[in-house]
Records
---
Amino acid sequence: MTSTFKIAFATLALAASGIASSQTLLNGSYDVAREFYKDYNAAFIANYKKTTGKDVKIDQSHAGSSAVARSVADGLDADVVTMNTSTDVEFLANAGVVAKDWAKRFPDNAAPTTSTMLFLVRNGNPRGIKDWDDLVKPGIQVIVVNPKTGGNGRYAYLAAWGYAKKKGGTDAQAAEFVGKLYKNVPVLGKGGRDATTAFLQRNIGDVLITFESEVVSVNKEFGEGKVDAVYPSISILAENPVAVVERTVAKKGTAELAKAYLNYLYSDEGQEIAARHALRPRSQAVLKKHSATFKPLQLFTVQEMFGSLSEAQKIHFNDGGQFDKLYTVK
C-alpha cells in the first residue's frame, strides 16, 4: 500500500467514523407544531453539541396527529413522537411501538406543554363572534379539523361539547348543540395546517377553531393583521404528550439521544421557546413571564368532563360513534 493510498484510506475511515458519530433523529409531530420545532431543534442541536461534543441532525415529519401516528405504526422510523392528543400515543402503545407506561417516562404525564382551543376570525371580527353560541347561528361558516384525523379536531369537538355541559346542558342538549355547530362546517380540514390554509388561502369560512399556538404561526406565515384571536368564555385544556418510539430507537441505537431530545423540552430554554410559539409552558416561572400572551380563561380537563381521552375516543370518534351520528360528510 503506497503512502498516498494509506493517507487517503485513513481520511476515508475518519470521515466514515464522523458520519457514524453524527446521529439523525426523526420527530413525528402534528401540523401546528411545525414552526415551534424548527426553533426548538436548532436550540437542542446547539445545546447537545455544547454538552456532549456530538453533532446531531433532526428531521421532522408533520401531518394531522392521527395520520402521523398511523404512519409510525405502519413503519415510519420516527425516533420520537410529539403529539397534541394522548389517544394517538396510546394507539402507538397498543401497537407495541411505544412503551405501555409512556406517560410515566417524562414529567407532567409526559406532556411538557399544553394549549387550548380558541377562535381565529377575520380582521376586525366582521361577524361579531365572541363565544361558542355564536358558532351555531344560521349563516356562520366554521372551519375545523376532522376529529377522526387530527387531535386539533378532537379537542375542538370536545371543547364545544364541554361548553354546552358547563352551561348546564344535558348530554342530549350537548349533542344537539355540537350537531348545530357541525351543520355550519362547510369543509373539514385533514389537520391543523390544512384547516388554516382553507380559512386564509382559500378564504372559506367566518371562523377557524384551532389551537392557541396557531395564532403565532398565522401571523408569521400570512402577515400580522389578517386575523383576530377570540378567546371563548370556556375552553378545554389540551395536553401535548411526547414519547420515545421504542421500536425505532432499538433498531437505530438512538435511545439516549431520543430521551435527551424530549427531556430538553422541559428545560428553561425549551419552555421559553414553547412560550414564544404560544404553547403554554409547564414552568410556572416561564408562564408568568409570558402572562400577556396566555390570557386567563375558564379551562376544563378532559378527565373531568369525559373520564379520559380514550373514553371520549370510544364514545365520540370511533366509527359509528357520536360524531358519525351528528356529522354527514359533505
---
Amino acid sequence: MFSYLYNPPILVKRIFHNFAWESSKDKVLFSFDDGPNPGTTEIILTSLKKKNIKALFFLVGENILRYPELVKDILEEGHEIGNHTMRHSIITKLNKNERREELGAVQKIMAEDFGYKVKFFRPPHGRFPFGLADELIPFGLKNVMWSLLTYDFKNELSIVKKTVDNYLKGNSIIVFHDSNKSAGIIEESINYAILQAEKNNFVIGGAKECLS
C-alpha cells in the first residue's frame, strides 16, 4: 500500500512509472477531488472561468448521482472528469472484485447518464495497491497522482500558500478539494496558485494536453 503527500520522491515515480505524477508537458494541471459539491463546485468553476483555465475534476459516484446538474456544469465549462470511486473508498481495504465494482459503477453512470467516457482515475487519499495499473486496463483508465498536494482541506490558507511556494513547478499536477472542508479558502487557494504560476511564467494546461 502506498500513500504520498506533497511531492512524492523520484524513486517512487520511477517504480510506478506508468502512473502520472507530473504533467507530460511543461504545463501545470489543476485538479479537484471529491466533488461535485454544492457551494464549492460553483466557486471553483467561476474562479477557473475568469482565467480561462480547464481543470480535471475527480468525482465521487455518489455525488454524481446526488448533483447531476453540477456534473453538467463541469462538462459544459469544458473541463475533464475523472473517476474517484463510487463511495470515496480507500481501495487498499477492498478486494479486487470490490475495487472493480467501485470503478465500474462510476464509469457506467458517466457513460449512461452523461454520454461521457472517463479516462482518468485517482485513488481516494492517494492509497493504492500493487497491481493497480493492471486493474485499470479493462476500464481504459490511467492513474493520475500528483506532485503538489495543497492541503486545502485543512481550511488554512497559510498552509496552501506555503505548499504552493515550496512545491509548484512548471509541470506540477496540483490537487485541490471540491468539498466543504476547503469551502472557506478554495477561491483564495485557486487564485494564489494562479498568481504564483503567472509570477514564474508557468503555463496552466488542461488534462488532455497534460496527460497525453
---
Amino acid sequence: MQTLSYRLRGQRRTGYGFTLIELLVVVALTGIFLRMAMPGFVAAIDSNHRNTISNRLMEDLALARHQAIAISSSMALCGNAQASVNTCLNSKVWSGGWYVYAGSSSTISSADAVLRVPQPLPTGWVVDAHLSSPGTYANLDARSSSDKFGHFTIYRSGYSTTAGCVALSSDARARAYLADSRTGVVSANNDPC
C-alpha cells in the first residue's frame, strides 16, 4: 500500500479543468446551436405579439357589442395614432391602438363616453382596418349589427409573411384566424386576409 501512495504523490497532477481548445469547441458549438434556434425564437415571439394584439381587438369588439346591447345604444371603435380623446383620426391604420366609446360616428362626444383608451402596440406592428365605407371606425348598434363590417389585418411591418386576421361580420360578431401571404411580405398592399 505504501508503494502505491508513494507513486501517486510523486506524479504530476493533470486532468483538472479544461484546455483552451476544449473551451473554444464548446463555445463554437453553443454559437452554432443558438444560430440554428434563433429563427424559431423570433417566430415564437412574433406569434405571441400577433396573438396578443388579435385577442385585445377581439375582446374590445366583444365589449362594444355587449355594451351596445346592454345600454340599447350604439358603440364604436376607432383607431387613433395620437392621444386625442375628442376625435378619431381619419385613418385605416390602427397601429396606435383604438378607442372603444359610446357613439355611432368617428367623433367621440365626451371623455365620459370612452370605455377603453388606446394601448400602444409593440414597435413595428401594424393593424390595418379594411372595413366598409368609410372604414375608419367600426360601429356596433343595439340590435347586434354593424354597418362597418370587414376585417383587420395584424402583422409585423417589413417581416411578416403570416398575418393575424380579425373578421367583423354584419351581425357584429368577430372571428380571428391566420392567413399566409403567398406573394411575399404582408403589407398594406399585400393583404392575405
